[in-house]
Amino acid sequence: MHFAPVLRSEALKVLTLRSLCGTLLAVFAVTTAFSALAGVSETSDPDFDPLFTALSGVMPGQIAAVAFGAVVVSSEYQGNGIRLSLAAVPRRGRWFAAKLVVVAVPVLVVGLLTAFAALVAARAGLGPAADGLTPGEQARGVVGCGLYLTLMALLAAGLTALFRSGVATLATLIPFLLVVSFVIGDVAGGATDLLPDKAGQVVLYQTHDGILGPWAGLAVTALWAAAALLAGAWRLRGRDA
Question: In whole angstroms, what is the distance from residue 134 CA to residue 30 CA?
Fold first, then answer.
């Protein structure tokens, strides 16, 4: 079977699952709402960064993106649906590639729209505090935010293929994002700069410290996602459906 019909069938699976469409809506709603709230917060903090404040809603919003990537893949393992999918598409690599496309493209599109909406909503609240942001910095933040959400969704998709369970993926990633970054990160300092979330979020700051720049940070997150996807592909090829 050619790639196009495989991709079409996988896209139909996403469109017919209301929970997946709802998860993408949650990415938009949660990120925009929290960014709007951040826009009316106190701006006198010496560490205040207007770009990060405007896009800070991505912190809770990324949970929905991770859930989307996990559920798209884990839905195949419910009721042994994976057997039917691989019977229709015996070339597992082609099937997995199509699955990843239907994870990446919707999250990227929604992520870009979300980042733009969050920036507009937050700037309305920030007022003059955001006047120092240049068009280039704002464009970099919007594009970087969309790419970051996409990479996190792909990371979740790869781990789900590896674990063969969406629950295991969410039980691993969500505490990691909420605990490691915000608790251990404050204790370990620069040791966490190469973690997938910390590295990728550098692109959301107007100014940044540390060893990574905005695009280098996204490249590190991309390496984490690639490692998870390769591990998932290895598990898919090496085990019976």
Answer: 25
